[in-house]
Write a structure and sequence with these properties.
The complex is a heterodimer.
Chain A: H1 2-16, H2 23-32, H3 49-73, H4 82-93, H5 96-114, H6 120-136, H7 143-169, H8 178-182, H9 184-215
Chain B: H1 2-7, H2 9-28, H3 37-68, H4 73-112, E1 117-126, E2 133-136, E3 149-152, E4 155-164, E5 167-172, E6 179-184, E7 190-195, E8 202-208, E9 218-221, E10 233-241, E11 248-255, E12 264-270, E13 279-280, E14 294-295
Antiparallel strand pairs in B: 1-2, 1-12, 2-5, 3-4, 3-12, 4-5, 6-7, 6-9, 7-8, 8-11, 9-10, 10-11, 13-14
Classes of the chains: A mainly alpha, B alpha+beta.
Chain lengths: 216, 299
């Protein structure tokens, strides 16, 4: 059993380092060890601090843009969950260490704006990043559809987790109301729709920053 | 150990990034959220973005509301002004029609209760000179001749002094050259009412000092001047000047008809009542509570 566990951990490390997954072999092994935790086929990008900071800064700017929009049009407008768009992008397109750290930082930014219990959004961000990264490696689909589908699922899970997390620590009658729960699906749909152009833009920025790094 | 960390660094990092906020959440769940220095810094640095967006949207909204959305307002304003003018004209026409209807209704009522033949005529002109005359749009062709009395439902207006085919000139009672024989309705005292040139007052003349005349008495035509039929309202006694000496008393009479607002009149072409008979007019122009005016009898 100890040997099997080491094999599993080694494979996980391989995935995080960008080694191609042999799904057929893994699937066979997974049945033997209660499933695999392969993190899938990922880019072989070295972790660079400035790129880790780039995504939360962008998220911070977009959150502030959204805050400006909501301030002007009123809070009743259905919001876009900016953090989810970034987390799914990080999970689908970036390296493991860079992506995990950036997801944590994006979660920190979300914590600033959600104003819920500290650490809630950070935890949910890293958890969502991990799930999307692990599961997406096993599903093949077009890039645009992956953005749409993963963002939609992640947005629903994100909001449910955040509302649940806030509700857990809120006093009697102070938790999220019915309207907040009813807005989960429309908000997730809007977030998924916005993810398409945003993921394309973030992808271009990612490629540009990579080439810039190489040029140096 | 180092090799283990090196080997599983990604897994350990993810685990740490999950445990760290989870621990923070559990530890601080029941406490109020206090922003750290880093939190405040991040929000302070990025806050101008929100303000800029809000300002841009506010400017765009203002631009839209103040200029773009008002682009068609000028045309709409012009259209509404035209509509307003049209509606005002229509309203005015309706008011005029209602007023005319009232006047004609009164004239019709007067005519129905009056014997003889009356010819209705609109006033189409007012003399621009010092003479108080008006021109009516009926003349010889309608059987109108000089000397015929002219009345309204309110009372005596004057008499025809000239005819010109389809028009006639009417000398108003208020003209300074005009006079009418009258009688105090209450005491039956005979008097003469003369015009003064003023539209608002007549002169009470030839009233014996011993006659019973009081302020407010109604004056009606006596028919003795052979011009005006008997019983038409002339006016109401205003001020009485009864001196302790002399043969007559003088006074002021308030005319029954406001000649400045004449628009339609009736010309008594042929009177048909026997002398001495008086009839109640349908309209008490001078006193809404008093007895109704009197219709003309025979001259």
């Amino acid at each position: 059993m100890k040997r099997e566990l080491h094999r599993l951990l080694d494979r996980l490390v391989d995935r995080l380092q960008g080694v191609q997954a042999n799904l057929r072999v893994e699937r066979r092994n997974a049945q033997a060890i209660l499933g695999s935790l392969s993190l899938g086929d990922q880019k072989r990008e070295p972790m660079r601090l400035w790129r880790v900071l780039l995504w939360p800064i962008l998220a911070l700017v977009l959150y502030q843009v959204e805050a400006g929009l909501l301030g002007h049009f009123g809070p009743e407008v259905v919001r876009v969950e900016v953090a989810v768009i970034f987390v799914t992008f990080l999970a689908l397109h970036l390296g493991a260490i860079e992506g995990a750290l950036a997801a944590f930082a994006v979660g920190y930014v979300a914590d600033l704006f959600v104003q819920g219990p500290p650490g809630l959004c950070r935890f949910v961000a890293v958890a969502a990043w991990t799930v999307v990264r692990v599961v997406s490696a096993r599903v093949s689909m077009p890039a645009w559809f992956a953005s749409l589908a993963w963002t939609l699922g992640a947005a629903i899970a994100w909001q449910a987790a955040v509302l649940g997390g806030v509700g857990l620590v809120a006093g009697e009658g102070n938790g999220p109301g019915t309207i907040a729960w009813l807005s989960v699906v429309p908000q997730a749909l809007l977030t998924a729709i916005f993810a398409l152009p945003l993921h394309a833009g973030l992808g271009r920025l990612d490629r540009f920053s990579t080439r810039g790094e190489i040029a140096h | 150990m180092l090799a283990f960390l090196q080997r599983y660094r990604e897994l350990l990092l993810v685990a740490a990034l999950l445990l760290l906020p989870a621990g923070t959440y559990v530890a601080n769940a029941k406490q109020g959220r206090d922003l750290s220095a880093l939190d405040k810094f991040c929000l302070a640095v990025s806050a101008p973005v929100a303000r800029t967006v809000d300002g841009l949207l506010g400017g765009a909204t203002s631009l839209w509301n103040d200029y773009v959305a008002l682009r068609d307002v000028h045309q709409e304003n012009q259209r509404l002004r035209e509509e307003l003018a049209e509606l005002r004209g229509e309203l005015n026409r309706r008011r005029e029609a209602a007023l005319e209807n009232e006047r004609l209704h009164a004239l019709l009522g007067f005519r129905r209760t009056t014997a003889g033949r009356l010819v209705a005529a609109p006033v189409i002109g007012v003399s621009p000179t010092h003479r108080r005359t008006v021109t009516i749009s009926r003349g010889e062709a309608s059987g109108i001749a000089e000397g015929m009395p002219v009345v309204t439902a309110d009372g005596v207006v004057g008499k025809v002094v000239a005819t010109y085919g389809d028009t006639a000139e009417v000398q108003l009672l208020v003209d300074s050259a005009s006079a009418v024989a009258a009688r105090v309705q209450r005491s039956r005292a005979r008097v003469t009412v003369r015009g003064t040139g003023s539209e608002s007052s007549l002169q009470l003349a030839n009233a014996l000092r011993t006659d019973d005349i009081e302020e407010g008495d109604l004056l009606v035509t006596s028919g003795t001047d052979r011009v005006f039929p008997k019983g038409l309202i002339v006016g109401r006694v205003g001020r009485i000047d009864r001196k302790p000496y002399g043969m007559y008393q003088e006074g002021e009479v308030l005319p029954a008809v406001d000649v400045s607002q004449l628009e339609e009149v009736l010309v008594v072409v042929e009177a048909g009542r026997p002398e001495g008979e008086e009839h109640q007019l349908p309209n008490a122009a001078l006193d809404g509570t008093g007895p109704a005016p009197v219709v003309p009898g025979t001259p």
